[in-house]
Amino acid sequence: MNRFTSAALTGVLLAGGVMAVAQPTQAAPAPGGVVAADAPAVAKAAGKTSKYYFLFNKNWSDPTKSRLYYMKSQPGKDRKIDDWRAGSGNGSTNECAKNAGWLPTGTYNVGKQTTRKNGGEKGINGYAIPVSNKWCKPKPGQRKVVRDALFIHSEMLPDGKQGRKTNGDSPYRWDGAGDYYSLGCIKLSPKDIRELFRTANKHGWPKQLKVVN
């Protein structure tokens, strides 16, 4: 059951009112809480405001069936413009499980998007949106860790096309529902991430991602 209640959504919206297996390699945190290669883009975005933002709603019964919303901030209750199925993590709801659990709850800065990211076979390719690092909130007995190398992305070639079908699970091709699993990033199907880009290009690119329970 999705524990994101209407009351919780209303609270988030009124307050100001998100990646299987494209195995992204993990980088050391950079100053400002972003991966070094993407630090300038995320820092630039953080200095601006936007009436649009991403909202990732965690699905506790199945993390691969969570939802990513494109929201418009407005007086009263914020408005949903569009939404898509999205996964985060390998099925674990432990936000302190590095390279495994879903994203920690909280607000993230959104960096400069690209349709041509080239991360290689063990990285992220094609359509990608970097988001800032986040420290997890550990439960008793857990160690606090920073979740880094985070993106909203899919599985494709660096040029945005689908790779050739293989006998196994190709990191350059969307092979099915199992590809909603990730190392912690937010992951959409190729069709949906293209639609997300069209929506954001039409209305405006968000500067924030809000991850909620």
From TrEMBL:
Q: Which UniProt keywords apply?
A: Cell shape, Cell wall biogenesis/degradation, Peptidoglycan synthesis, Signal, Transferase
**An MF annotation (GO) of this entry:** transferase activity
Recorded superkingdom: Bacteria
Q: Which GO terms describe its biological process?
A: cell wall organization; peptidoglycan biosynthetic process; regulation of cell shape
> Does Plastid show up as a keyword for this record?
no
Q: Where's the active site on this chain?
A: 153 (proton donor/acceptor), 185 (nucleophile)
InterPro entries attached to this UniProt entry: LD_TPept_cat_dom, Transpep_catalytic_dom
Q: Which interval of the chain is the signal sequence?
A: 1-27
What the entry lists under Gene3D superfamilies is as follows: L,D-transpeptidase catalytic domain-like
Protein name in UniProt: L,D-TPase catalytic domain-containing protein
Name the source organism.
Streptomyces capitiformicae
Give the source lineage, highest ranks first. Answer: Bacteria, Bacillati, Actinomycetota, Actinomycetes, Kitasatosporales
